[in-house]
Amino acid sequence: MEHELTIKGRAYVAGIYEHPTRHAPDKSIAQLHAEVARGAIEDAGLSKNDVDGYFLSGDAPGGTWPMVDYLGLKVRHIDSTDTGGSSYIIQLGHAAEAIAAGKCSVALITLAGKPRTGHSPVRSPGAEADFEAAYGATTHNAYGMCAMRHMHDYGTTAEQLAWIKVAASHHAQYNPHALLKDVVTVEDVVNSPMISDPLHRLDCCVVTDGGGALIVTSPEIARSLKNPLVRLIGHGEALKGPNGGKDFDLTYSAGVWSGPRAFEEAGVTPKDIKYASIYDSFTITVLMQLEDLGFCAKGQGGRFVADGNLISGVGKLPFNTDGGGLCSNHPVNRGGMTKIIEAVRQLRGEAHPKVQVKNCDLAIAHGTGGLLGVRHAASTAILERV
Ligand SMILES: CC(=O)CC(=O)SCCNC(=O)CCNC(=O)[C@H](O)C(C)(C)COP(=O)(O)OP(=O)(O)OC[C@H]1O[C@@H](n2cnc3c(N)ncnc32)[C@H](O)[C@@H]1OP(=O)(O)O
Q: In this protein, which residues make up the domain named Thiolase C-terminal (predicted)?
Protein backbone atom coordinates (compact mmCIF):
# COMPACT_ATOMS: atom_id res chain seq x y z
CA MET A 1 0.00 0.00 0.00
CA GLU A 2 1.32 3.45 -0.92
CA HIS A 3 0.88 6.05 1.80
CA GLU A 4 0.88 9.40 0.06
CA LEU A 5 0.50 11.21 3.36
CA THR A 6 2.51 9.03 5.71
CA ILE A 7 3.04 10.05 9.32
CA LYS A 8 6.03 7.70 9.58
CA GLY A 9 8.68 9.40 11.66
CA ARG A 10 6.99 12.81 11.37
CA ALA A 11 5.86 13.10 15.01
CA TYR A 12 7.59 12.30 18.29
CA VAL A 13 6.13 11.70 21.75
CA ALA A 14 8.22 14.18 23.71
CA GLY A 15 6.27 14.34 26.98
CA ILE A 16 4.27 11.86 29.06
CA TYR A 17 2.54 12.05 32.42
CA GLU A 18 0.25 9.66 34.27
CA HIS A 19 -1.60 11.07 37.26
CA PRO A 20 -0.62 9.07 40.36
CA THR A 21 -4.11 9.26 41.88
CA ARG A 22 -6.66 6.48 41.60
CA HIS A 23 -9.10 8.14 44.00
CA ALA A 24 -9.75 11.86 43.69
CA PRO A 25 -13.00 12.77 45.48
CA ASP A 26 -11.87 16.35 46.07
CA LYS A 27 -10.71 17.21 42.55
CA SER A 28 -12.80 18.25 39.56
CA ILE A 29 -12.33 16.57 36.19
CA ALA A 30 -11.12 19.90 34.77
CA GLN A 31 -8.53 20.11 37.57
CA LEU A 32 -7.28 16.61 36.72
CA HIS A 33 -6.94 17.66 33.06
CA ALA A 34 -4.91 20.67 34.16
CA GLU A 35 -2.65 18.60 36.43
CA VAL A 36 -1.85 16.03 33.76
CA ALA A 37 -1.32 18.77 31.16
CA ARG A 38 1.22 20.45 33.45
CA GLY A 39 2.93 17.11 34.07
CA ALA A 40 3.37 16.27 30.39
CA ILE A 41 4.51 19.79 29.45
CA GLU A 42 7.10 19.73 32.25
CA ASP A 43 8.24 16.23 31.28
CA ALA A 44 8.85 17.49 27.74
CA GLY A 45 10.79 20.50 29.02
CA LEU A 46 8.42 22.92 27.32
CA SER A 47 6.12 25.67 28.56
CA LYS A 48 2.37 26.09 28.16
CA ASN A 49 2.96 28.85 25.62
CA ASP A 50 4.66 26.36 23.30
CA VAL A 51 1.44 24.34 22.92
CA ASP A 52 -0.42 25.22 19.71
CA GLY A 53 -2.64 22.14 19.31
CA TYR A 54 -5.03 20.57 21.81
CA PHE A 55 -6.54 17.10 21.58
CA LEU A 56 -9.21 15.82 23.91
CA SER A 57 -11.76 13.04 23.91
CA GLY A 58 -15.26 13.42 25.33
CA ASP A 59 -14.23 13.37 28.95
CA ALA A 60 -14.09 17.06 29.92
CA PRO A 61 -16.87 19.25 31.24
CA GLY A 62 -18.31 21.22 28.33
CA GLY A 63 -15.94 19.71 25.77
CA THR A 64 -12.77 20.93 24.14
CA TRP A 65 -13.24 24.72 23.85
CA PRO A 66 -14.03 25.29 27.55
CA MET A 67 -10.94 23.22 28.40
CA VAL A 68 -8.80 25.36 26.08
CA ASP A 69 -9.98 28.40 28.09
CA TYR A 70 -9.60 26.65 31.45
CA LEU A 71 -6.04 25.59 30.63
CA GLY A 72 -5.21 29.06 29.30
CA LEU A 73 -3.98 27.71 25.96
CA LYS A 74 -3.49 29.66 22.75
CA VAL A 75 -4.01 27.02 20.09
CA ARG A 76 -4.54 27.03 16.35
CA HIS A 77 -5.77 23.43 16.04
CA ILE A 78 -8.15 21.28 18.13
CA ASP A 79 -9.54 17.75 17.80
CA SER A 80 -12.31 16.18 19.90
CA THR A 81 -12.53 12.68 18.39
CA ASP A 82 -14.23 10.34 20.84
CA THR A 83 -14.20 6.60 20.20
CA GLY A 84 -14.22 5.34 23.79
CA GLY A 85 -11.25 3.15 24.70
CA SER A 86 -9.36 3.75 21.45
CA SER A 87 -9.81 7.55 21.55
CA TYR A 88 -6.33 8.45 22.66
CA ILE A 89 -4.53 6.07 20.32
CA ILE A 90 -6.57 7.60 17.50
CA GLN A 91 -5.72 11.07 18.86
CA LEU A 92 -2.00 10.23 18.72
CA GLY A 93 -2.38 9.56 14.99
CA HIS A 94 -4.44 12.70 14.49
CA ALA A 95 -1.81 14.77 16.29
CA ALA A 96 0.88 13.29 14.04
CA GLU A 97 -1.20 14.09 10.95
CA ALA A 98 -1.77 17.66 12.13
CA ILE A 99 1.95 18.14 12.79
CA ALA A 100 2.88 16.61 9.42
CA ALA A 101 0.38 18.94 7.71
CA GLY A 102 1.72 22.02 9.53
CA LYS A 103 -1.50 22.64 11.46
CA CYS A 104 0.33 22.66 14.79
CA SER A 105 3.82 21.87 16.06
CA VAL A 106 3.32 21.04 19.76
CA ALA A 107 0.19 18.99 20.46
CA LEU A 108 -1.11 18.50 23.99
CA ILE A 109 -3.40 15.50 24.52
CA THR A 110 -5.15 15.09 27.89
CA LEU A 111 -7.35 12.46 29.54
CA ALA A 112 -9.10 12.75 32.91
CA GLY A 113 -12.01 11.06 34.57
CA LYS A 114 -13.65 10.25 37.88
CA PRO A 115 -15.66 7.06 37.43
CA ARG A 116 -14.65 5.95 40.94
CA THR A 117 -15.79 8.94 42.96
CA GLY A 118 -17.61 11.17 40.51
CA HIS A 119 -19.92 11.03 37.58
CA SER A 120 -18.40 9.24 34.62
CA PRO A 121 -20.58 6.33 33.64
CA VAL A 122 -18.89 3.01 32.95
CA ARG A 123 -20.71 2.20 29.77
CA SER A 124 -20.33 2.87 26.11
CA PRO A 125 -21.66 6.03 24.52
CA GLY A 126 -24.19 5.48 21.78
CA ALA A 127 -27.80 5.59 20.72
CA GLU A 128 -28.71 2.77 23.10
CA ALA A 129 -27.19 4.45 26.17
CA ASP A 130 -30.45 5.96 27.48
CA PHE A 131 -32.24 2.64 27.17
CA GLU A 132 -29.48 0.80 29.01
CA ALA A 133 -28.97 3.37 31.76
CA ALA A 134 -31.91 2.06 33.79
CA TYR A 135 -30.10 -1.28 34.18
CA GLY A 136 -26.70 0.10 35.21
CA ALA A 137 -23.51 -0.86 33.42
CA THR A 138 -24.23 -3.18 30.50
CA THR A 139 -20.80 -3.03 28.86
CA HIS A 140 -19.79 -6.19 30.71
CA ASN A 141 -22.53 -8.15 28.94
CA ALA A 142 -21.30 -7.36 25.44
CA TYR A 143 -17.78 -8.46 26.36
CA GLY A 144 -19.20 -11.55 28.04
CA MET A 145 -20.95 -12.48 24.79
CA CYS A 146 -17.65 -12.15 22.88
CA ALA A 147 -15.91 -14.40 25.40
CA MET A 148 -18.70 -16.98 25.28
CA ARG A 149 -18.63 -17.05 21.49
CA HIS A 150 -14.83 -17.37 21.44
CA MET A 151 -15.05 -20.31 23.84
CA HIS A 152 -17.75 -21.92 21.69
CA ASP A 153 -15.93 -21.49 18.38
CA TYR A 154 -12.33 -22.09 19.45
CA GLY A 155 -12.43 -23.97 22.74
CA THR A 156 -10.90 -21.08 24.69
CA THR A 157 -11.11 -21.71 28.43
CA ALA A 158 -11.73 -19.54 31.50
CA GLU A 159 -8.29 -20.59 32.74
CA GLN A 160 -6.61 -19.28 29.59
CA LEU A 161 -8.40 -15.94 29.92
CA ALA A 162 -7.35 -15.83 33.58
CA TRP A 163 -3.66 -15.91 32.58
CA ILE A 164 -4.10 -12.38 31.22
CA LYS A 165 -5.08 -11.05 34.66
CA VAL A 166 -2.31 -13.12 36.25
CA ALA A 167 0.28 -11.49 33.95
CA ALA A 168 -1.11 -7.99 34.63
CA SER A 169 -0.96 -8.63 38.38
CA HIS A 170 2.68 -9.76 38.16
CA HIS A 171 3.50 -6.39 36.65
CA ALA A 172 1.23 -4.33 38.94
CA GLN A 173 3.07 -5.53 42.07
CA TYR A 174 5.96 -3.23 41.08
CA ASN A 175 3.80 -0.19 40.33
CA PRO A 176 3.43 1.89 43.52
CA HIS A 177 0.39 3.64 42.08
CA ALA A 178 -1.50 0.52 40.93
CA LEU A 179 -4.95 0.12 42.47
CA LEU A 180 -4.45 -3.65 42.86
CA LYS A 181 -0.94 -4.79 43.80
CA ASP A 182 -1.55 -8.40 44.86
CA VAL A 183 -0.28 -11.12 42.53
CA VAL A 184 -3.21 -13.38 41.66
CA THR A 185 -3.38 -16.94 40.37
CA VAL A 186 -5.51 -18.58 37.70
CA GLU A 187 -7.58 -20.10 40.52
CA ASP A 188 -8.15 -16.67 42.09
CA VAL A 189 -9.57 -15.42 38.79
CA VAL A 190 -11.84 -18.35 37.98
CA ASN A 191 -13.10 -18.56 41.58
CA SER A 192 -13.96 -14.84 41.80
CA PRO A 193 -17.67 -13.90 41.53
CA MET A 194 -19.26 -14.18 38.10
CA ILE A 195 -20.00 -10.75 36.62
CA SER A 196 -21.19 -11.57 33.10
CA ASP A 197 -20.84 -15.24 32.19
CA PRO A 198 -18.11 -16.31 31.45
CA LEU A 199 -16.31 -13.21 32.77
CA HIS A 200 -15.51 -13.14 36.49
CA ARG A 201 -14.79 -10.13 38.62
CA LEU A 202 -11.05 -10.58 38.07
CA ASP A 203 -11.53 -10.74 34.28
CA CYS A 204 -12.61 -7.08 34.49
CA CYS A 205 -10.63 -3.84 34.55
CA VAL A 206 -10.61 -1.69 37.65
CA VAL A 207 -12.59 1.52 38.08
CA THR A 208 -10.30 4.45 38.98
CA ASP A 209 -10.13 8.22 38.99
CA GLY A 210 -7.17 9.87 37.30
CA GLY A 211 -5.79 10.70 33.92
CA GLY A 212 -2.78 11.16 31.73
CA ALA A 213 -1.33 13.41 29.06
CA LEU A 214 1.04 13.44 26.11
CA ILE A 215 3.06 16.03 24.26
CA VAL A 216 3.49 15.15 20.58
CA THR A 217 5.76 17.31 18.50
CA SER A 218 7.77 17.64 15.30
CA PRO A 219 11.13 15.86 14.84
CA GLU A 220 12.97 19.21 14.96
CA ILE A 221 11.46 20.28 18.28
CA ALA A 222 11.78 16.77 19.81
CA ARG A 223 15.51 16.72 18.97
CA SER A 224 15.98 20.04 20.79
CA LEU A 225 14.52 18.60 24.02
CA LYS A 226 16.08 16.45 26.74
CA ASN A 227 14.05 13.22 26.60
CA PRO A 228 15.09 10.06 24.76
CA LEU A 229 13.60 10.19 21.27
CA VAL A 230 10.45 8.15 20.66
CA ARG A 231 8.65 8.50 17.35
CA LEU A 232 5.47 7.23 15.76
CA ILE A 233 6.24 5.13 12.69
CA GLY A 234 2.91 3.51 11.93
CA HIS A 235 -0.72 4.22 12.71
CA GLY A 236 -4.06 2.72 11.81
CA GLU A 237 -7.68 3.24 12.74
CA ALA A 238 -10.75 1.29 11.71
CA LEU A 239 -14.43 0.87 12.53
CA LYS A 240 -16.53 -2.25 12.88
CA GLY A 241 -20.31 -2.13 13.03
CA PRO A 242 -23.06 -4.70 12.79
CA ASN A 243 -23.37 -3.80 9.10
CA GLY A 244 -27.15 -3.62 9.01
CA GLY A 245 -27.47 -6.80 11.05
CA LYS A 246 -25.34 -8.82 8.63
CA ASP A 247 -22.13 -9.08 10.65
CA PHE A 248 -22.54 -10.39 14.13
CA ASP A 249 -19.32 -12.41 14.24
CA LEU A 250 -18.29 -11.48 17.76
CA THR A 251 -14.89 -13.14 17.61
CA TYR A 252 -12.94 -10.41 15.86
CA SER A 253 -12.43 -6.67 16.27
CA ALA A 254 -11.58 -3.80 13.94
CA GLY A 255 -7.96 -4.49 14.90
CA VAL A 256 -7.94 -6.83 11.88
CA TRP A 257 -7.84 -3.64 9.77
CA SER A 258 -6.10 -1.04 11.96
CA GLY A 259 -3.24 -3.43 12.83
CA PRO A 260 -2.09 -4.39 9.32
CA ARG A 261 -2.26 -0.76 8.21
CA ALA A 262 -0.03 0.35 11.08
CA PHE A 263 2.44 -2.51 10.59
CA GLU A 264 2.64 -1.84 6.86
CA GLU A 265 3.26 1.87 7.33
CA ALA A 266 5.93 1.11 9.94
CA GLY A 267 7.51 -1.58 7.75
CA VAL A 268 7.63 -4.08 10.62
CA THR A 269 5.75 -7.24 11.62
CA PRO A 270 4.35 -8.53 14.94
CA LYS A 271 7.51 -10.64 15.34
CA ASP A 272 9.60 -7.45 15.57
CA ILE A 273 7.62 -6.00 18.50
CA LYS A 274 9.49 -6.06 21.83
CA TYR A 275 6.68 -4.71 24.05
CA ALA A 276 2.89 -4.55 23.65
CA SER A 277 0.40 -2.21 25.33
CA ILE A 278 -2.95 -3.83 24.63
CA TYR A 279 -6.24 -2.31 25.73
CA ASP A 280 -7.56 -4.43 28.56
CA SER A 281 -11.09 -3.50 29.56
CA PHE A 282 -11.60 -7.25 30.07
CA THR A 283 -9.37 -10.28 29.61
CA ILE A 284 -11.21 -11.25 26.42
CA THR A 285 -10.40 -7.81 24.97
CA VAL A 286 -6.68 -8.60 25.16
CA LEU A 287 -7.01 -12.13 23.79
CA MET A 288 -9.04 -11.11 20.73
CA GLN A 289 -6.84 -8.13 19.93
CA LEU A 290 -3.64 -10.20 20.09
CA GLU A 291 -5.17 -12.51 17.49
CA ASP A 292 -6.46 -9.65 15.35
CA LEU A 293 -3.04 -7.96 15.35
CA GLY A 294 -1.38 -11.17 14.16
CA PHE A 295 0.59 -12.11 17.28
CA CYS A 296 -1.04 -15.53 16.89
CA ALA A 297 -3.61 -17.12 14.59
CA LYS A 298 -7.35 -16.56 15.10
CA GLY A 299 -8.56 -19.00 17.72
CA GLN A 300 -5.07 -19.57 19.17
CA GLY A 301 -5.20 -16.65 21.63
CA GLY A 302 -5.98 -18.89 24.59
CA ARG A 303 -2.85 -20.97 24.03
CA PHE A 304 -0.79 -17.85 23.30
CA VAL A 305 -1.56 -16.06 26.58
CA ALA A 306 -1.30 -19.14 28.83
CA ASP A 307 1.60 -20.10 31.09
CA GLY A 308 2.92 -16.58 31.57
CA ASN A 309 3.63 -15.75 27.93
CA LEU A 310 2.65 -12.10 28.59
CA ILE A 311 4.83 -11.69 31.72
CA SER A 312 7.93 -9.54 31.29
CA GLY A 313 11.10 -11.62 31.69
CA VAL A 314 9.12 -14.88 31.45
CA GLY A 315 7.14 -14.95 28.21
CA LYS A 316 7.63 -14.00 24.58
CA LEU A 317 5.42 -10.90 24.53
CA PRO A 318 5.62 -8.65 27.62
CA PHE A 319 2.36 -6.70 27.84
CA ASN A 320 0.97 -3.88 29.99
CA THR A 321 3.96 -3.75 32.31
CA ASP A 322 2.35 -1.06 34.47
CA GLY A 323 -0.42 -3.49 35.44
CA GLY A 324 -2.70 -2.00 32.80
CA GLY A 325 -6.40 -1.37 33.18
CA LEU A 326 -6.86 -4.82 34.66
CA CYS A 327 -4.89 -3.94 37.82
CA SER A 328 -3.49 -0.42 37.81
CA ASN A 329 -5.56 2.35 36.25
CA HIS A 330 -8.67 2.72 34.10
CA PRO A 331 -9.92 6.29 34.37
CA VAL A 332 -13.09 6.51 32.26
CA ASN A 333 -13.58 4.12 29.36
CA ARG A 334 -10.75 5.76 27.43
CA GLY A 335 -7.75 3.80 28.65
CA GLY A 336 -5.74 4.12 25.42
CA MET A 337 -3.84 7.01 27.01
CA THR A 338 -2.14 4.83 29.62
CA LYS A 339 -1.31 2.31 26.90
CA ILE A 340 0.74 4.93 25.05
CA ILE A 341 2.38 6.20 28.26
CA GLU A 342 3.66 2.75 29.29
CA ALA A 343 4.87 2.04 25.74
CA VAL A 344 6.87 5.28 25.82
CA ARG A 345 8.27 4.43 29.28
CA GLN A 346 9.45 1.09 27.91
CA LEU A 347 11.05 2.70 24.86
CA ARG A 348 12.80 5.31 27.02
CA GLY A 349 14.01 2.57 29.39
CA GLU A 350 12.01 4.18 32.21
CA ALA A 351 9.69 1.30 33.12
CA HIS A 352 10.16 -0.28 36.55
CA PRO A 353 13.47 -2.23 36.46
CA LYS A 354 11.64 -5.47 37.33
CA VAL A 355 9.50 -5.20 34.20
CA GLN A 356 11.70 -3.17 31.83
CA VAL A 357 12.15 -5.06 28.55
CA LYS A 358 15.81 -5.31 27.50
CA ASN A 359 16.76 -3.35 24.37
CA CYS A 360 13.18 -2.21 23.92
CA ASP A 361 13.31 -0.30 20.65
CA LEU A 362 9.92 -1.14 19.11
CA ALA A 363 6.53 -1.14 20.82
CA ILE A 364 2.87 -1.27 19.93
CA ALA A 365 -0.03 0.51 21.63
CA HIS A 366 -3.41 -0.77 20.54
CA GLY A 367 -6.97 -0.26 21.68
CA THR A 368 -10.63 -0.70 20.93
CA GLY A 369 -13.47 1.53 22.06
CA GLY A 370 -17.16 0.80 22.23
CA LEU A 371 -18.44 -2.75 22.29
CA LEU A 372 -15.82 -5.31 21.30
CA GLY A 373 -16.92 -7.53 18.44
CA VAL A 374 -20.11 -5.52 17.92
CA ARG A 375 -19.80 -1.76 17.25
CA HIS A 376 -16.48 -0.16 17.97
CA ALA A 377 -13.40 1.67 16.71
CA ALA A 378 -9.89 0.23 16.90
CA SER A 379 -6.58 2.02 16.67
CA THR A 380 -2.98 0.82 16.46
CA ALA A 381 0.19 2.84 17.00
CA ILE A 382 3.72 1.57 16.39
CA LEU A 383 6.37 3.49 18.27
CA GLU A 384 10.14 3.35 17.85
CA ARG A 385 13.08 4.52 19.93
CA VAL A 386 15.43 6.46 17.70
C1 LIG B 1 -16.53 1.25 26.42
C2 LIG B 1 -15.17 1.26 25.85
O3 LIG B 1 -14.91 2.03 24.94
C4 LIG B 1 -14.22 0.26 26.27
C5 LIG B 1 -14.16 0.06 27.76
O6 LIG B 1 -13.36 0.63 28.40
S7 LIG B 1 -15.19 -1.03 28.45
C8 LIG B 1 -14.70 -1.08 30.16
C9 LIG B 1 -15.34 -0.03 31.01
N10 LIG B 1 -15.07 -0.34 32.42
C11 LIG B 1 -15.74 -1.30 33.09
O12 LIG B 1 -16.63 -1.95 32.55
C13 LIG B 1 -15.37 -1.52 34.54
C14 LIG B 1 -15.27 -2.99 34.85
N15 LIG B 1 -15.17 -3.22 36.30
C16 LIG B 1 -16.26 -3.15 37.14
O17 LIG B 1 -17.37 -2.81 36.70
C18 LIG B 1 -16.07 -3.48 38.60
O19 LIG B 1 -14.71 -3.36 38.94
C20 LIG B 1 -16.55 -4.92 38.93
C21 LIG B 1 -18.02 -5.09 38.51
C22 LIG B 1 -15.71 -5.94 38.19
C23 LIG B 1 -16.38 -5.19 40.42
O24 LIG B 1 -17.20 -4.33 41.09
P25 LIG B 1 -17.82 -4.80 42.51
O26 LIG B 1 -18.28 -6.21 42.41
O27 LIG B 1 -18.80 -3.73 42.85
O28 LIG B 1 -16.58 -4.78 43.43
P29 LIG B 1 -16.24 -3.75 44.62
O30 LIG B 1 -17.37 -3.78 45.61
O31 LIG B 1 -15.83 -2.44 44.05
O32 LIG B 1 -14.96 -4.43 45.27
C33 LIG B 1 -15.08 -5.71 45.91
C34 LIG B 1 -13.71 -6.35 45.93
O35 LIG B 1 -13.35 -6.73 44.60
C36 LIG B 1 -12.12 -6.12 44.23
N37 LIG B 1 -12.25 -5.72 42.82
C38 LIG B 1 -13.13 -4.84 42.30
N39 LIG B 1 -12.95 -4.75 40.98
C40 LIG B 1 -11.96 -5.60 40.67
C41 LIG B 1 -11.32 -5.93 39.45
N42 LIG B 1 -11.68 -5.36 38.30
N43 LIG B 1 -10.33 -6.83 39.49
C44 LIG B 1 -9.95 -7.40 40.67
N45 LIG B 1 -10.52 -7.12 41.85
C46 LIG B 1 -11.51 -6.22 41.85
C47 LIG B 1 -12.01 -4.90 45.14
O48 LIG B 1 -10.66 -4.53 45.31
C49 LIG B 1 -12.62 -5.41 46.41
O50 LIG B 1 -11.66 -6.21 47.08
P51 LIG B 1 -11.64 -6.30 48.70
O52 LIG B 1 -12.94 -6.89 49.09
O53 LIG B 1 -10.46 -7.18 48.98
O54 LIG B 1 -11.49 -4.90 49.17
A: 245-384
